[in-house]
Please model this.
Amino acid sequence: MQTESIEKCGALRGEIRVPGDKSISHRSVMFGALAQGQTRVRGFLRGEDNLSTLTAFRAMGIAVEERPDGELLIEGRGMQGLSEPADVLDCGNSGTTIRLMSGLLAGQRFFSVLTGDRYLRRRPMGRVLQPLAQMGAQIWGRQQGQCAPLAIVGQPLKGLSYQSPVASAQVKSALLLAGLYAEGETRVYEPHLSRDHSERMLRHFGVTVDSFAGGVSIAGGQSLQARDLEVPGDISSAAFFLVAALIVPGSELLIRQVGVNPTRTGILDILRAMGGDIRCLDERELGGEPVADLLVRSSTLKGIEIGGALVPRAIDEFPVISVAAACAEGTTVVRDARELRVKETDRIAAMASVLQTLGVTVTTADDGMTICGQETFQGGQVDSCGDHRIAMSAAIAGLCAGTALTIRDTACTETSFPGFWPLLAGLRRQAV
Ligand SMILES: O=C(O)C1=C[C@@H](OP(=O)(O)O)[C@@H](O)[C@H](O)C1
Ligand SMILES: C=C(OP(=O)(O)O)C(=O)O
Model:
């Protein structure tokens, strides 16, 4: 099992790039496959989750060329162009893959089976299967349709008006994909706005999607036209280096070409509210998505309260936000974040355990945690629980640990951030 050891380092300085956005990369393959014609994708994230999506579409007859310069050429076959996969589709560790594909496959004219690794097979699928069943989908899963493997018998679908109990882009996107195949209109309401990459990319591919206060709607029977795409850097990956630069004294980092879609920038709002010096430079647009260069300087942080609509806008960043909170003056309280309990692992429990090992006082609640900030950490040994975001957050905490912090089970960072360890090691080597 791979382990990494990190300890206190000098100021982090320089200019970096982070790999492409994971959410946008998944959607580029899915929508590119359904479009008529060739879609070129630059900046595709070659993380394990996205490779699961790519492999699944190849297994349904979609030709994808991976060029030496990293560009993908996807030969879209139109809305009815997928073919029945001859084997089970393995979604690996990826919740986005299995949930979006459930919606897409529900309306096909063939049979398919979706599964994943031991972490994914524990995650809740009922949130997608239940509204899909109301659209006429025939999907079976373990534990009364709660868990994968999922067996899908494609059916004609009908539109639905659905109030989602959770702010989840995976639920919303699964229903939009099913809605494309359904008769009539599909409307999805959510308690707070979740990331809107599907809506933006569908529009980029020529589909009409209406966004209104509280939700989104799509009419069935529309088709997609192939378009070129450029994937911005993933703000969820940039988040580790934003926090690293904030908490290591004397640091200054410029992170180039990061996606700053407002449904994803909760991390910037939270870190700035804590006193973080982060600037967005040269804001521009790439294929319907806003991007900017992020300049971050080390700052004295203070504890804050986080909850409500901000939570879905920073949902994947809470592990590393908890590290910033542990270095802040005063107490940080996170509420309304129950969703963290059903990610790759229970991220509330996992981060509480990491921070407690470092000597930080943390208490947990059903929907969040309270973290008492302090000046330095002690080292020790922590476990990633097989979760990429826990492994990388622990590494950032290690930059402030007085003695070495050993992190067990670190290969999982390949899920979303190939190259994380060399990038961090390079910055530490050049630290001043
Ligand atoms: O749609 C997406 O690409 C994602 C949505 C979020 O999940 P939920 O929809 O479960 O909130 C997020 O946590 C995940 O990393 C990616
Ligand atoms: C929760 C995540 O992804 P997914 O749901 O796609 O597995 C994540 O990347 O933090």
